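To whoever is on call:

I kicked off a structure prediction for a single chain this morning and the downstream step that reads the tokens threw a length-mismatch warning. I double-checked the sequence; it's 408 residues and nothing unusual in it as far as I can see. Pasting both halves so you can look.
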Amino acid sequence: MPVFSQRDAFFVRAIAGLALLATAPTASAAEALTASEAEQLRFEIRQLKLLNQSHIQKLQQMENRLNQLEPSAEPSLSKSKSSTVASNTAPTKRSADPTASVENILLEEHTLFTDKFTFEVGMDYTHYDRKQLALDGFLALDAIFLGDIAVDDINADIFTWDFNGRYNINKRWQLGASIPFIYRTSTYQKNFVTDSDAATGEVRTIIDGSTDGYGLGDITLTSAYQLFAETQSRPDIVWNLSVKAPTGKDPYGVDTKIVEDDNGNRLEIPKQLPTGSGMWSLSTGLSFLKTTDPAILFANVGYTHNFSKNFGGDTGEIRLGDSFNYGVGIAFAMNERMSLSMALSHRINLESEQNSSKIIGSDGNAATFTTGVTYALSNRLSMLTSVGVGLTPDASDFSIGIKFPYRF
């Protein structure tokens, strides 16, 4: 629609006036029609004046808006250039408010510093099946330090209930504690040659016996400190430190029992299984996390030192071998509530010592592949699940875990 200026409006009114003057001398028969046309022209002129005034106001508003934007265009461009230069060093924000799925990944694989306090309840089930006595974690402690116990097969099941608390001192430093309760059961089997037959060869029989143990495990105190925040060229880096106290029942000096079959074959097994290592340990390491849309990459590396302790009697001084561990993984936020992760972890144990003498075969090499799913049940409560499969003989056959962290 055309825009009318004040000059145009005046021109329209002048034309209308001339038209009225031109019709004045006409016959009286046409005067009534001329008066009607004049009234219609006056109405149209008023409408055009109103429309023209509205357009003039809109033009004025647009000019004022343009005048406001033009002075800030140059500083805005300068600011954009400076922010581009600094983007490689400034901390990268994942989002103004990270989704629950991303926060769950940080809880499970890294460290989350946003909440003041987090309380977590978890349950883990681990199964071992060995065809010979292997020195690995609790399985080693079941036998090697209890005397000359020889078995051919061990089936072990370990249930662990963890109660964890994590408190953020500030946005970079976190303190925590983990209190485990453990129930363990193991079945030992041994093969015996009971007779010899020329036709069939050796005649064997199998003796088995079971035992269990339960109670408080070793309590762990933890500290996590963010060394560097994530940028476009650097991952988020957190330094982890933990101390494990020997609060569980140790495996040294445990009484044994004899299982005997009808043929007099005997199998010696412990009466009760331990729930702890019996000594202090100190662990330190670094964890890394980098967001690369749509994936999140994470890794960790750590070292654990076990302090020696003298248990007296025939056991004497025991020092478990130190261990080195590392892991890598990738996670995907499927939506705002659910995420999927996959990780490979590897732990190498050095040889243990008894009375300053190394125990042959006490070193270990355990590699595990783990996949997990996290789901945010609410804004504060989440569910973290994981399934692990052992890749080496010293690793557990498989493990299943579930955790419920609640963020305050």
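Update from on-call: the warning came from a stale cache, not from the record. Cleared it. Sanity check on the structure: Residues 21-32, 71-96, 132-148 have pLDDT under 50 and may be disordered.
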